[in-house]
Description:
This protein has 116 residues and is mostly helical. It is built from 5 helices and 2 strands. The relative contact order is 0.21.
Amino acid sequence: MNLIVRLVAGALGFWAATTLISGVSVNGGAWSYLWVALIFGLINGVLGSIIKLLTLPAILLSLGLFSFVINAAMLMLTARWSDSLDVVDFWSALWASLIISIVTTIVNRAFKTKSN
């Protein structure tokens, strides 16, 4: 159930990003948003984690802000590997990754179950 909530949260984040940022678009309907969220989650989970580990000093020196740059790079990589996602430039990817992070955090916290 947690995986489904995270996937839907990612799709909602992509929807919000494509609505607010003109340089990011998802071609297709709801299934395309879910597909892009799945690909982005896999890329960010595997490759993004490795890159964040390798750039840990830069992340610490920037007080965590460099992780948004890494997320934007992972978003651009997702756009390159997926036909459903189009990202125009780095700044669009940076703002979109910020919006996606905010939306997914809000949705995940709203559906978080308390386990004792």
